Amino acid sequence: MSHQDPRVGRMFRRDSIAAIGAVITVWLIYAFTFWMMRPAFAASGLTGIMIGLGACVLFLNTAAVLAMIRHYGEDRAAIYGTDIYYLDRLRQVRREQGGQP
């Protein structure tokens, strides 16, 4: 499988967009949860702690996803090339068996 296969780039872009979308979703969920729980945090004096803990979780989650995207970008030919190889093989077997491509 050549690293020049345009499917590798498309798969990498699709996965990167999905990963970034997941991170944005996590940020939005944390923001919504904090907003809704804000009165309870304030009443119990935990606002600062909850902001700190939430910031840590968001930072670590975001950093992990960015590191994953960077790693996938560096080794995309090997990672996606294997997927494409097996997808092509599956398509070939289905075609030989008279199934849909």
From TrEMBL:
Superkingdom, taxonomy of origin: Bacteria
Keywords: Membrane, Transmembrane, Transmembrane helix
Keyword Transmembrane helix: yes
Segments crossing the lipid bilayer: 17-37, 49-69
Protein name: DUF485 domain-containing protein
Species of provenance: Methylobacterium oxalidis
